[in-house]
Design brief:
The chain has helices at 10-22, 36-45, 54-59, 70-82, 97-110, 124-134, 161-171, 173-184, 248-265, 273-296, and strands spanning 2-6, 27-32, 49-51, 63-66, 86-90, 114-117, 139-147, 187-195, 201-207, 212-218, 227-234, 237-240. By secondary structure, it is of the alpha/beta class. α6 (124-134) runs parallel beside α8 (173-184).
């Protein structure tokens, strides 16, 4: 499969370009970016071609991987689907339900395959744990904490304008939801939402299985306090999400495998754009709840 990369930023450099160039079943055909000089440098580094015209790249590939801000990604994903390209996208799919739905509609009409790269869903140990817990009945509640230090460290993502504007809810919230939804089921409602220090947010979610979950998200945690934890409690007892022994590149290679399989079999992957849309809808509902609760001056208790 010929695949092109849209994007040249830190995530494209650290994850997407290495994963695409090393994949044995992909031909890394070219790079397009909003900064032509950055596209040229990245293409030279990986022995591929830089494209000045995104449509020229879309015409010469079977699929595209997108490592761009979500507002840019959504429009380009629609454009790529209309050009007949399969889609390897990043989270969040978009920053509004309407934009995410436009991507879903475009992929449906074009009949192209799609995978949204929720990192944890494609890491070996967490992926196996999620599958095991999804097959286990009787979960009562869950606690998920995704605490990053993007804005309190020298992270290359600290300068990201969309992360500055949208914060942890939209950046790491998709990761938490990607773990909780396959285990506890869809979210029936965001029953409570509150702001914490910096961009920290606290959510309480009601799931269709009658389980509930609490979620804490931040990009402004002190570096010593940063980390990820997911705990499930239910009839089977207590279990914790295992850490991963691998970085993003092997996980992204598995996401590419999933895209190849979906394109070949025409069977949608569980992390396709429809799932990405649902995650976007829940994040939008949480954002609305945060605004409503803050505007009412109401505090959220236990």
């Amino acid at each position: 499969m010929r695949i092109g990369l849209l994007g040249t930023g830190p995530w494209a450099q650290a994850a997407y370009a290495p994963a695409l160039s090393k994949h044995g079943d992909l031909r890394f055909t070219g790079v397009w970016g909003r900064r032509p000089d950055a596209a040229a440098a990245l293409a030279e580094r990986y022995g591929t071609r830089a494209y000045d015209d995104v449509d020229a790249l879309l015409d010469e590939v079977d699929a595209v991987a997108v490592a761009l801000p979500p507002s840019v990604q959504a429009d380009l994903a629609v454009r790529a689907a209309r050009a007949g390209c399969h889609l390897l996208l990043d989270k969040p799919l978009a920053l509004s339900a309407a934009d995410a739905r436009a991507v879903v509609d475009a992929t449906d009409r074009a009949g192209v395959a799609s995978v949204v790269f929720f990192t944890t869903r494609f890491q070996a140990e967490p992926r196996a744990w999620i599958a095991e817990q999804a097959a286990t009945a009787g979960w009562f509640t869950a606690r998920a904490e995704w605490l990053g230090a993007v804005f309190t460290s020298d992270s290359p993502f600290a300068a990201s304008p969309w992360r500055r504007a949208k914060g942890a809810l939209w950046d790491v919230g998709p990761h938490a939801l990607s773990v909780l939804l396959p285990v506890l089921g869809d979210v029936r409602g965001v029953t409570a939402a509150a702001h914490g220090p910096g961009d920290t947010v606290h959510l309480v979610l009601d799931h269709v299985t009658d389980a509930s979950s609490s979620v804490t998200l931040s990009l402004t945690a002190p570096p010593a306090a940063a980390g990820v934890a997911v705990e499930l409690r239910g009839e089977a007892g207590v279990t914790l999400l295992p850490g991963s022994s691998e970085g993003a590149v092997p996980a992204l290679a598995r996401a590419a495998d999933a895209l190849l399989t979906a394109a070949r079999t025409r069977r949608p992957h569980s992390c396709d754009v429809a799932f990405g849309l649902r995650v976007t809808e829940i994040l939008a509902a949480a954002e609305d709840r945060l605004t409503t609760d803050a505007g009412s001056g109401r505090s959220v208790g236990m």
